[in-house]
Amino acid sequence: MRAGFPFAPPGMTVGLLGGSFDPAHEGHVHITDEALRRFGLDRIWWLVSPGNPLKPHGPAPLDERIARARRIMRDPRVEITGIEARLGTRMTRDTIAALQRLYPGVRFVWLMGADNLVQFDRWDRWQDIAARVPIGVIARPGWRMPARFSRAARLLWRARLPESRARELARARPPAWVMINLPLNKLSSTAIRVLGPKGR
Ligand SMILES: Nc1ncnc2c1ncn2[C@@H]1O[C@H](COP(=O)(O)OP(=O)(O)OP(=O)(O)O)[C@@H](O)[C@H]1O
Ligand SMILES: O=C(O)c1ccc[n+]([C@@H]2O[C@H](COP(=O)([O-])O)[C@@H](O)[C@H]2O)c1
């Protein structure tokens, strides 16, 4: 395995939580804990992104964001990575394709908050992402309904599994997705940047 890339043997299920993490917060920790449990994942890798292709302003330096993420997320099943900077990928579709080449037999699941499902149809080659990996969507305050009725959700409607089958997601053949409900957490990086460390 290349230096700086986590170890994962064939057959392992790995959730990928991509984000700016600018900064990482308890909401990220909460959804990661829940995703491990509810989707029955062996590992989750945070992909701290060099920058969201749809956001006009660049985030804080990658090293700072990774260092903070490592301070708050301390579960041995979770790896905090700057994989996209190492791979030189910006688009999620390219990141996933590269990881699938590097880790044959590993079952990757893309994880995202419901807010991201709402704009998923604007992502580069999003239908190819959905064809490559199962997708776990995590409810977020104010975004459940917009996510449910989003264009991507409508176009992928037949691939949706009920929440009661969330544990099957990692082994489901894509396209497949589930939206899980959990005790909602209102934190967001934007709130922390604007309002200070507690986000309120
Ligand atoms: N409180 C939360 N509940 C559910 N999902 C969340 C929550 N916070 C972040 N996420 C999800 O985690 C992933 C990474 O989040 P990101 O780094 O963009 O943080 P953020 O709080 O959404 O930032 P911003 O406010 O700048 O958009 C995204 O898929 C996002 O939807
Ligand atoms: O590939 C794309 O076109 C694309 C467009 C928007 C967002 N993403 C990814 O979505 C993830 C969440 O981004 P963010 O900035 O909302 O934390 C992160 O991994 C981004 O790289 C990806």
Report on the structure:
Helix content is 34%, strand content 16%. The protein is of the alpha/beta class and 200 residues long. The protein has a single domain (13-199), classed as HUPs (Rossmann fold, 3-Layer(aba) Sandwich). A 6-stranded parallel β-sheet has the order 3-2-1-4-5-6, sandwiched between helices. Helix 4 (92-102) runs parallel beside helix 6. The longest helix has 13 residues, at 26-38. The protein is globular and about 40 Å long. Nicotinate mononucleotide (NCN) binds at residues 18-20, 47, 49, 52-55, 91-93, 116, 123-124.
Outline the secondary-structure elements.
Blueprint: E1 13-19, H1 26-38, E2 43-48, H2 62-72, E3 78-81, H3 83-87, H4 92-102, E4 107-113, H5 114-118, H6 126-132, E5 135-138, H7 144-148, H8 151-155, E6 177-180, H9 189-195
Parallel strand pairs: 1-2, 1-4, 2-3, 4-5, 5-6
Bound molecules: adenosine-5'-triphosphate and nicotinate mononucleotide.
Organism: Paracoccus denitrificans (strain Pd 1222)
Family: Belongs to the NadD family.
Catalytic activity: nicotinate beta-D-ribonucleotide + ATP + H(+) = deamido-NAD(+) + diphosphate
